[in-house]
Design brief:
InterPro entries: AAA_22 (IPR049945), Helicase_ATP-bd (IPR014001), Helicase_C-like (IPR001650), P-loop_NTPase (IPR027417). The protein has two domains: 208 residues, P-loop containing nucleotide triphosphate hydrolases (Rossmann fold), CATH 3.40.50.300; 160 residues, P-loop containing nucleotide triphosphate hydrolases (Rossmann fold), CATH 3.40.50. The protein has 15 helices and 18 strands. A hairpin with a 2-residue loop joins strand 5 and strand 6. The relative contact order is 0.18. The C terminus is likely disordered. It binds adenosine-5'-triphosphate (ATP).
Length: 460
């Protein structure tokens, strides 16, 4: 995979210069911030319009390898998303791949104390498993807990499940994250980023192998040995499930067949020089030329996200002033872990009719999240990872190519509520030959003194 130059993105540098010219980052946000979270553009349908190509490029900047089935696929997009929209919540639940194996899965869980569940992204592991366990009677004896690697995932999944169970969030279904506990005396299903006392724990997204997940693996192995009444279900989107199974003593692996909606892949023919610039151009191209559907762009961190949002807003303004016919409306929304929770939650709000949302995210949006309406994912192929630097004696964040599993997760965000398209700003050969199937787990590359998981789980 292309190594990014030490200088990084020219676009990010250009935006930084503008920030310095505005004296401070705060001033920059006062100026730029008003453009985010507001609809840019004027009344205009999503028909192709005559656009100044110096602003968006003809097909973005990237020369994509076209999928021959693309036109056919786009027809399907429309047909199936309308189909999905017309379904009730119960019908949507029954449409998920996990539903077809519900009884079989519950049977295996009844017969085993620990099982590994493997299924494609979007198959229903996070939202359905906990409800099936409740329906099978486990909540009569205590809480069904589901661990999540990220706060935003715990919150949004709990919200979705509370809607599916027709209960207020915080009543039967709740979540607990650091400094915030939205549960009550009636809570029977709890999504959380910390451990707690439960009768069943679903360890979700185990393939991420975060430091906390790996430590929790060790703790739960002891709990399993001590408490016969306790059940552990480990879910993973990838096939490295055998490792997890071996760790717990060759426990069964249950496969959920199929995926919800197809995703169409478009790969760059050559590696991108500046993926930030390429992503901005691609997002503008999708906005101007593609049928309705929201866009999700993956960047490595806050700096790149700010630059991307700023550049998108600037290009929208240029377009608006240079195009007489009007420009379709765009709502630009950043999301990264340091963004306050109320601003993070904005990505889930529906944009007004006729407006397209463009979410610019770190890998915070890579797993568990379903943002209804995302049909286009733009994957830059990079992420920031924490690595221990022995010379400095501390952890540092560095930019690395993502793993193949992460690329699949990113693409999966486009096929959740209808068939989608994933623009990969890297080559197909990089995906097949250079991206690692499973990257080095965090436990092997960071300082272990930072483990923050609540250990109370081990004492019960
Ligand atoms: N907030 C939501 N709005 C609309 N549909 C949703 C929402 N949350 C979940 N869904 C539907 O439920 C499906 C299953 O989501 P779920 O999170 O359970 O899948 P998963 O197998 O855990 O995937 P992943 O491993 O990617 O988290 C989604 O693909 C989507 O169709």
């Amino acid at each position: 995979m292309a190594i990014i130059s030490r200088k990084g993105s020219a676009l990010v540098r250009e935006i930084h210069k503008k920030q310095s010219a505005n004296k401070s980052r705060q001033r920059f946000w006062e100026l730029a911030g008003s453009k985010f979270g507001e609809i840019l553009g004027v009344e205009k349908t999503f028909e192709q319009i005559d656009v100044d190509t110096t602003v968006v490029g003809k097909h973005g900047e990237v020369d994509f390898k076209e999928d021959s089935k693309f036109a056919q696929h786009l027809k399907k997009v429309e047909a199936v998303s309308n189909f999905a929209k017309s379904k009730t919540i119960d019908q949507q639940r029954q449409y998920l791949p996990i539903y077809s194996v519900r009884d079989e899965l519950l049977q295996v869980i009844r017969e085993n104390q620990v099982i590994i569940v493997v299924g494609e992204t979007g198959s229903g592991k996070t939202t359905q498993l906990t409800q099936y366990l409740h329906e099978d009677g486990y909540t009569a004896n205590g809480i069904v807990g589901c661990t999540q690697p990220r706060r935003v995932a715990a919150m949004s999944v709990a919200k979705r499940v509370s809607e599916e169970m027709e209960t207020e969030l915080g009543d039967k279904v709740g979540y607990a994250i650091r400094f915030e506990d939205v549960t009550g005396p009636n809570t029977i299903i709890k999504y959380m980023t910390d451990g707690s006392t439960s009768v069943v724990i679903v360890m979700d997204e185990a393939h991420e192998r975060s430091l906390d997940t790996d430590v929790l693996f060790g703790i739960l192995k002891k709990v399993v040995a001590q408490r016969r009444d306790f059940k552990l279900i480990v879910t993973s989107a990838t096939l490295n499930a055998q490792k997890f199974s071996n760790f717990f003593g060759s426990v069964p692996i249950f496969h959920i067949p199929g995926r919800t909606f197809p995703v169409n892949f478009l790969y760059s023919k050559t590696p991108c020089e500046d993926y930030v610039e390429a992503a901005v151009k691609q997002a503008m191209t999708v906005h101007i030329t593609s049928p309705p559907g929201d866009i999700l762009i993956f960047m490595t961190g806050q700096d790149e996200i700010e630059a991307t949002c700023y550049a998108l807003a600037e290009r929208m303004e240029q377009l608006i002033s240079s195009t007489k016919e009007g420009v379709p409306k765009l709502l630009i929304l950043p999301i990264y872990s340091l963004l306050p929770t109320d601003l993070q939650a904005k990505i889930f709000q529906k944009a007004e009719d006729g407006a397209r949302k463009c979410i610019v995210a770190t890998n915070i949006a890579e797993t568990s999240l379903t943002v209804d309406g995302i049909l286009y994912v733009i994957d830059t192929g990079y992420c920031k990872m924490k690595v221990y630097n022995p010379r400095m004696g501390m952890d540092a964040l560095q930019v690395f190519p993502i793993s193949r599993a992460a690329a699949d997760q990113r693409a999966g965000r486009a096929g959740r509520t209808g068939p989608g398209t994933c623009y990969r700003l890297y080559t197909e050969s990089a995906y097949l030959n250079e991206m690692l199937q499973s990257p080095v787990p965090e436990i092997q590359r960071t300082n272990l003194s930072n483990v923050g998981f609540a250990a109370q789980i081990s004492s019960n």
